[in-house]
Amino acid sequence: MCLNVEDKEFSLNDNAAPVRRRLRVAVAGLGVIGEGAALELAKDETPYALCAALVRDPSKARAAKLAALRTYADPAVMLVEHPDVVIDALPSGEAGRRLIEAALSKGVSVVTANKQAIAGALALLHKHAAQHHAVLEYAPSVGGGAPMVETVRRARSLGAPREISAILNGTVNFILSAMKNGAAFSDAVKRAQDAGFAEPDPSADLSGEDARAKISILTYEAFGREIDLDAIAVEPLTEERANAFSKNGGVWKQLARITRDANGGLRAGVGFQRVDSDPLFRKVEREGNALRVVNADGRALTCEGRGAGREPTVESILGDLNRIALALPLRKLEGEENALRRRVSVG
Ligand SMILES: NC(=O)c1ccc[n+]([C@@H]2O[C@H](COP(=O)([O-])OP(=O)(O)OC[C@H]3O[C@@H](n4cnc5c(N)ncnc54)[C@H](OP(=O)(O)O)[C@@H]3O)[C@@H](O)[C@H]2O)c1
User: Fold this and answer.
1) What's the CATH code of the domain at 61?
2) For ligand 1, atom 41: residue with the closest CA
3) pTM of the model
4) Domain housing 89
5) CB of 193 closer than 6 A to ligand 1?
6) What is the 3-state secondary structure (H, E, C) of 217-236?
């Protein structure tokens, strides 16, 4: 049985406006992010109906408020619960990609926090979503609580973006901030882990893989095309490099950057830069993230916020859910109109 469910279908009233019902939402992953999202959706006042969850081990005890939630280990079986939207909060890129493709191919919309699942595949996944009248949103996969996807979309609506530079990895920023305040590298990594920002194995953050995936997502958002992930040059954060920054002094940040040249060519990279004179980046502390997008006409848009952690990421997931709730009736009607046209032309 679903929690909070109302069973009215989308339908047309006399004025041809869609009648709304609570959207059924399934959550994939009940870890730091997924459990946080599920707990929000299980609240009485939510406009959504939390109907199922995907986990690795359905026999595991869950938070008391989620005790009645049906949990599955097989994505295909979870989709039989007929969610309208799936929230992908899985830690694995491969499992996330499989889930997103399975959901979209059934017309189920997706909000994903899982950058590795979508990096390099957004063009394909958006096409897939459109074919099945579903919507794919992914603001929580980049920037946590900093509205980076939204800011880049806004810049694109105002003109042609020329350059994006951003602090995209909360763990690396946390380590650099702690070291600037005197911590040793190993202590700074441990503090990031204790604060819940760095994984027990922080290699995806330190190697720059995380920032690479995120800048590729922003590249698609800004320029409407994919960039080859292997073409994004990445500098890892090693202990030696971090110590050199401390010795050098000043404010050092990991910046991801993508630029579009006059011929439309794209160049992207992730590296370290001294930013003492940059008013946006120099003040980003701890797990903070920040972004600047500059358009061809010189107009610059910026945003900043907490780049990691349950609260800002869940907030971002709820923002995307609201966007989907607004878009879905239209997608559904488009699908029905197309089906009607096909029936009329066949008849
Ligand atoms: N943590 C952050 O601050 C943050 C911020 C932004 C985005 N993200 C992204 O959000 C996603 C989730 O991160 P997280 O920190 O919440 O991860 P996490 O705590 O490690 O998530 C673990 C959850 O995923 C389930 N799970 C793992 N592998 C599975 C599989 N193959 N099939 C089904 N369920 C599986 C686990 O099931 P069991 O409970 O049964 O073990 C558990 O419930 C990641 O892609 C991450 O990059 C995280």
Assistant:
1) 3.40.50.720
2) 56
3) 0.91
4) 11-143+310-346
5) no
6) HHHHHHHCCCCCHHHCEECC
Tell me the mean pLDDT in the region 254-279: 97
30 close to 38: Cβ distance less than 8 angstroms:
yes
Q: From the CA of 90, how far away is ligand 1's center (Å)?
A: 4
Residues 6+ apart with CB under 8 A from 136: 100, 104, 109, 110, 112, 118, 122, 125, 126, 129
**Are residues 154 and 227 both part of a single domain?**
yes
- The enclosing domain of 283 has a CATH number of 3.30.360.10
Q: How far is the CA of 94 from the centre of ligand 1 (A)?
A: 12
| Count of the separate structural domains present in the chain | 2
Take atom 3 of ligand 1 and give the residue whose Cα is closest.
309
* Residue 316 Cα: closest atom of ligand 1: 6
Joined together, the tokens standing for residue 298 give 């010189």
Ligand 1 atom nearest to 55, measured from its CA = 34
Q: pLDDT, tens digit, for every residue of 303-329? A: 999 988 899 999 999 999 999 999 987
Report pLDDT digits (tens) over 59-86.
999 999 999 999 999 999 999 999 999 9
Q: Is the CB of 107 under 6 A from ligand 1?
A: no
187: pLDDT strictly greater than 90: yes
